[in-house]
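Exam revision sheet. Question 4 asks you to relate a sequence to its structure. Input first:
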Amino acid sequence: MTKRVRQGFPELKDVPDDQLLYATWRSFKRIDQTSDSDYHRMANVFFREFDRHLLNYQFSKAGEDDVVRHRFFAIITELFQ
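Answer key, structure tokens:
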């Protein structure tokens, strides 16, 4: 998963592997705690986790919320099909 995330998000190139792995784990943990686990919800969880904790709101500040959520949605859809 983290390899695919790195491919889809060149913005994460400077993020250390351990932080990326931890953010991915936290995202799945949050998803597991909800009863709503459709792909859109998953993409939103990943977006919030990565934007907030890895990139200090870089995506939000740039107004790229929807674009980035679609990128996460594409990755998740590809992984789980």
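Marking note for examiners. The CA atoms of residues 52 and 58 lie 8 Å apart.
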